[in-house]
Amino acid sequence: FGTTLSGQKEQEPRWKRCVRRTDGALGDLLGQAFVDQAFAGDSKAKALQMIKDIETAFENALPSLSWMDDETRGHALDKLHAITNKIGYPDAWESYEGLAIGDDAYANALATARWEHADQLAEVGQPVDKAKWFMSPPTVNAYYNPLVNEIVFPAGIMQPPFFDAAFPTAMNYGAMGMVMGHEVTHGFDDSGRKFDPNGKLSEWWSAEVSEKFEAEAQCVSDTYAAIEVQPGVFLNGELTLGENIADFGGIKLAFDAYKLWEARNGAPGRGLAGLTPEQLLFVGYAQSWCSEATPEVETLRAKSDPHSPPRSRVNVPLSHLPAFWEAFSCEDGDGMRVADDKVCAVW
User: Fold this and answer.
1) Annotated active-site positions, please?
2) How far apart are alpha carbons 336 and 221 in whole angstroms?
3) Cα separations (Å) of 148 from 80, 183, 257?
4) Among 163, 171, 161, residue whose Cα is nearest residue 290
5) Residues 248 and 58: beta-carbon distance below 8 Å
6) Which of 31, 105, 159, 218 has the greatest number of CB atoms lying within 10 Å of its CB?
7) Cα-based angle 38, 40, 42 (whole degrees, multiple of 5)
8) Count of beta carbons in the 10 Å neighbourhood of residue 8
C-alpha cells in the first residue's frame, strides 16, 4: 500500500523508525540531549534577533499596503506586537512522571500512549497552559498557533541548511529568516487573519478591507492553480492558499529583515562563489528547500497537502518579487520574472 501510494521502494532503516517513535513518545527527554549537542552557545540569542528583525520588517511594510486602511493597520500592529515567540525548547522540560519504560517495544508503545492520553485528559477544565509546545525540540519544522497567537521554532530547524553560525548572514536570513517570516505571515493569512491578538475568532477587519484582501489572495490562488505538478495533476489553489500567502510574505520579510541587519552592521562585499549578499540570501532560501520526490508523492501531495511542492514554494514567490529580479538582473520576459500585471502581493 505504501509503495503504491508514495512510490517508496523500501522501508526506512530501523534506526530512523526507532528515533521517530522515541521522539513522538518522549520528545522532551530526547530533546534535552539534542539541545545540548546542537543548540548550544548563542543560537537562541541570534534567533531572537532575527525574529525581531522580521517583525520590524512586517511593521515597516504596513503603511505601503494600498488595500489596507489605517484602522485595520492599527489592529494588525496590535496583533503583531502580541505574538509570543518560542525559540529552541520549552522553559520547563516534561518529567514524564509515572511513566515506566522497559525493554519491550510494544509494551513501551502502550505505556507512552496511555500516559499521553491521561496527561491530556488531566488538562480538561484547567486553565490553558500557554507554555506548552506541540512539537519536540529536535523537530525540523515550525508553526503558528492562532488560538494563542504564538510562533514556535524548535531547535531542530535551527540547523543546516536553514541556519548555521558559520553561514554568511544573508544565507541565514534567506533560509531561516524566510521560515520566521512565513510563520509571522500565517497570523495574517486567509485563516489566521480571522483571529484577534488574544486568539479569539473576531472580525477586526472592515468589510471593504476584507474584500480587497480577498482580491489579492485570489491572485495567489489562481497562480498556483495553474501549476501542473505531474501530467494532468494540478495544484489546488484554495487548499494551498494559506501556505502560499505565507511563502510570499516570508521571503519578502526575510529580505527586508536582512536589510535591517545590514543597516546596523554594514553591507558585506561579495561572498561565496562571488555572489552578492542579496544573491546569497535567495540562494540560501532555495537550498533550504532542495528535495527529491517520486511522481506518486507529488500526485498525493497535490491532492491532500496544504503546502505547495518545494520547487513551487521557491520559484513562484521569487518570480513575483522585485528584490529578486534586481538581485539577478531578471528582465521582462525572463522565466523568473512574471509580467508586471500578473504580480501577486498580499503582504
Assistant:
1) 183, 247
2) 19
3) 12, 14, 25
4) 161
5) no
6) 31
7) 130
8) 13
Length of the chain: 347
Do residues 82 and 198 make contact, with C-beta atoms less than 8 angstroms apart?
A: yes
Q: Closest Cα partner for 48 from 225, 250, 230, 257?
A: 257
Going from the C-alpha of 205 to that of each of 24, 70, 195, 346, the distances in angstroms are 39, 11, 10, 15
Torsion of CA 28, 33, 35, 41, to 10 degrees: 150
Tell me: the pLDDT tens digits for 327-338? 999 999 899 999
Chain-centroid distance of CA 27 in Å reads 20
Taking alpha carbons only, the member of 58, 81, 80, 82 closest to residue 254 is 58
**For residues 291, 292, 298 and 304, what is the CA-based torsion angle, rounded to 10 degrees?**
-40
Give the mean pLDDT of 287-302.
95
- Decide: 192 and 151 in contact? Cβ < 8 Å: no
Residues 44-88 have pLDDT tens digits of 888 899 999 999 999 999 999 989 999 999 999 999 999 999 999
Q: How far apart are CA 105 and CA 202, in angstroms?
A: 46
Q: Which amino acid is at 148?
A: V
